[in-house]
Design the sequence.
């Protein structure tokens, strides 16, 4: 029995192969070059209304006003409705009659109404407001 055990150990050990690891250089890849793909920048965004007004970039839409023998208050209200601006007309000038048929920007039409009504006008694009007050020289 001893002989059989010794024979098994010798035969079993002789069939075993020795493992030799490959050198580590065979498994390594060359280092990849470093590319900078991220760049710092600001994404595009719409310019806020307050900044547009400060820079004089107000959208100048062409409007048409037709006021034949109307009160200044009615003509100014028509301009305000078309432009989306609030309108203030002083009581002292609100009942003056105006005749204006013109196309132009909000500023142009407000000045024409002020000339026809013989008063001052102030157009505030930030507050979106048009004011007609007593006076003789129209101003923007």
Sequence:
């Amino acid at each position: 029995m001893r002989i059989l055990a010794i024979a098994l150990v010798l035969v079993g050990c002789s069939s075993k192969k020795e493992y030799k690891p490959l050198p580590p250089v065979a498994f390594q890849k060359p280092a990849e070059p470093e590319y900078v793909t991220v760049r710092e920048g600001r994404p595009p965004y719409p310019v806020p209304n307050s900044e547009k007004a400060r820079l004089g970039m107000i959208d100048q839409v062409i409007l048409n006003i037709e006021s034949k023998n109307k009160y200044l208050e009615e003509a100014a209200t028509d301009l305000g409705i078309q432009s989306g601006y609030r309108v203030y007309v002083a009581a002292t000038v609100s009942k003056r009659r105006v005749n204006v048929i013109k196309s132009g920007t909000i500023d142009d039409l407000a000045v024409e109404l002020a000339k026809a009504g013989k008063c001052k006008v102030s157009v505030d694009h930030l507050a979106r407001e048009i004011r007609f007050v007593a006076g003789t020289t129209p101003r923007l």
